[in-house]
């Protein structure tokens, strides 16, 4: 999915400055697209800051109704059960800090290990000479053809046999060592580094391990960063696999917790205010992460590969 | 799935097959000279190869094996031959869920591809703003679960702002996710909202590869934007579009999350997409063998579509250069 390169794009000069009817229409379409893209985010915030009775009374009010932090308090488990039920919550204890921590642990573990191991393998495929290299790499490429979803059921059976069900390690393990895409993508990058760079270091007496860590890895920092951010986002947003593997609070990640929050509908109807507050909390870390790396990511999403 | 800019394996430098296994004294120096790094490579590839074998290769083979067994997790898998496949062929719910999935994919991919193309062209021809590209990508940062929940709320029959607007305009409220006819198109469009920006950026990157001179020359010849789109953009973007289509179709067939949080397969199996049915068979009824057989069926369908699309769209060839 993540297809990334680091080529700088050539800027194409926008069309002439004279505002024509076509240009105005095109800008109107663009504005509509931005509106549809962003309005749901505002609506999450507006709902999260309202109270449930307020939402029921004024469903169309564009501003927060009866502004309150109650939704956030319920999502973060800061309210007592009685208080929560009085405000239209389910009163079921949701340990959001725990889920947040679980999500951070799983995503960090997956991203850190996967990128590091994939980079090592990519280096071996691109720069080292060894018997059977092309065959092994061909096998990795074939791995790209298997949709992730196909491996989930057998992987669940395996994780269960390993006794890692309901364990954060069990969630991270299948994608912790590599993805064929990460290996393929980084190999492409290493292959494009001129071999003179490496030879110069070899002449200086550096070993290949040293060259990998001190020369090639730093040179690849930009693609690695882009790949890492996209991997982190994918791991953070994953729902299906954690749903299969985790059963209790100890290994529950945010996506699964959100779906459970939604399923615990109180008798008075869905706790929309609390649910949207929880949604916002779950989504915020990725928005912040993207805020830091947006320019780099947007510039480097390109068409070299596949998901 | 294909890779656009992959260099064929034949272009790799020849491996030093004769480099390893000389006398211990000179082995290391020789290996260096000839470039054989067998031992080092083994260390570098080991973790990835371990992960590949244990969590990708083995599960793939095992998934195929399990499809020929009866297996409920508790007792060992029992070989039943083609029983699961026979059952699948005679299971009306399976065919129904396949139909629902195809309906979802057609709407999802149809709307998404056209919108993404429009957005990509606007981003290229109208403005080169990186900020706009960032904005367009934002929904992709949300999980499917978050996207599903937000739209569930917006489209709520009683309190959702979407239905408030519809009612305000004097129309009847639409029970988007609670109605058998509306549910699948609604879920398809929710997922368009999340994925269209990412798809647009992939196409945008493809557009950037088209030399600007071509457009300049066409403009000198008096061609308008509309004409340039059909005569220049579309033909030159075709290889990129083809690969993006293959990618998105494969992703689209795997829809699960949004269904799970919005409709749970309902109403009356109207959104019981294949992956949701498979999940239910495995984790609801513990029929892992049957679930595996349906997974294999999905795998076959996806492979066939990939090959077919690749052939039809000649994805490997470019009109550029």
TrEMBL record, chain A:
CDD domains: TM_PBP2. InterPro entries: MetI-like, MetI-like_sf. Residues 100-293 form the ABC transmembrane type-1 domain. It is found in: Cell membrane. The chain crosses the membrane at residues 21-45, 104-125, 137-159, 171-190, 211-233, 273-294. Its main location: membrane. Keywords: Cell membrane, Membrane, Transmembrane, Transmembrane helix, Transport. Belongs to the binding-protein-dependent transport system permease family. This is Carbohydrate ABC transporter permease. It comes from Streptomyces cylindrosporus.
Automatic annotation (TrEMBL), chain B:
Residues 98-309 form the ABC transmembrane type-1 domain. It is found in: Cell membrane. It is a multi-pass membrane protein. InterPro entries: ABC_transporter_permease, MetI-like, MetI-like_sf. The keyword Transport applies. Residues 1-34 are annotated as: Disordered. Residues 1-26 have a biased composition (Low complexity). The chain crosses the membrane at residues 40-61, 104-123, 135-154, 236-256, 288-308. It comes from the Bacteria. Its main location: membrane. Keywords: Cell membrane, Membrane, Transmembrane, Transmembrane helix, Transport. Gene3D superfamilies: MetI-like. Belongs to the binding-protein-dependent transport system permease family. This is Sugar ABC transporter permease.
